[in-house]
């Protein structure tokens, strides 16, 4: 896969229940929230489609793709 089609999500806010991730890439701005109990991902803003989003900075147990 082309490297340009990967975005690295950064964790912006976290608390004991949820962790918020944001894509820093200009023009994308994908926003997701991770439920730390169930590890369910909820998309608040989809951002660029067709891009693989990863969240490697998570202090949570997950290192899976934020997709
Ligand atoms: Zn992105």
SSE blueprint:
Blueprint: E1 6-8, E2 10-14, E3 18-22, E4 31-35, E5 41-45, E6 52-54
Parallel strand pairs: 1-6
Antiparallel strand pairs: 2-3, 3-4, 4-5
What does this structure look like?
The chain is mainly beta and 67 residues long. It has one domain (3-51). Helices cover 0% and strands 39% of the residues. It has strands at residues 6-8, 10-14, 18-22, 31-35, 41-45, 52-54. Strands 2-3-4-5 form a four-stranded antiparallel β-sheet, with no helix packed on it. A two-stranded parallel sheet has the order 1-6. A hairpin with an 8-residue loop joins strand 3 (18-22) and strand 4 (31-35). Zinc ion binds at residues 7, 23, 25, 28, 30, 47-48, 51, 53. Residues 7, 23, 25, 28, 30, 47-48, 51, 53 line the site of zinc ion.
What is the helix tally? 0
Strand order of the largest sheet: 2-3-4-5
Beta-strand residue fraction: 35-45%
User: Which geometry do the CA atoms define?
Assistant: elongated
Radius of gyration: 11 Å
Oligomer: single chain
Mean pLDDT across residues: 81
How many domain modules? Answer: 1
Give the proportion of residues in helices: under 10%
- Low-pLDDT runs of 5+ residues are 57-64
Q: In terms of structural class, how would the helical and strand content be classed?
A: mainly beta
Question: Which hetero ligands occur in this complex?
Answer: zinc ion
Brief rundown of the structure:
This protein is an all-beta fold.
């Amino acid at each position: 896969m082309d490297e340009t089609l990967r975005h690295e999500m950064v964790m912006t806010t976290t608390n004991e229940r949820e962790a918020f991730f944001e894509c820093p890439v200009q023009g994308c701005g994908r926003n997701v929230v991770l439920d730390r109990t169930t590890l369910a991902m909820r998309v608040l803003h989809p951002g660029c489609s067709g891009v693989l989003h990863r969240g490697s900075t998570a202090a949570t147990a997950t290192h899976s793709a934020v997709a």
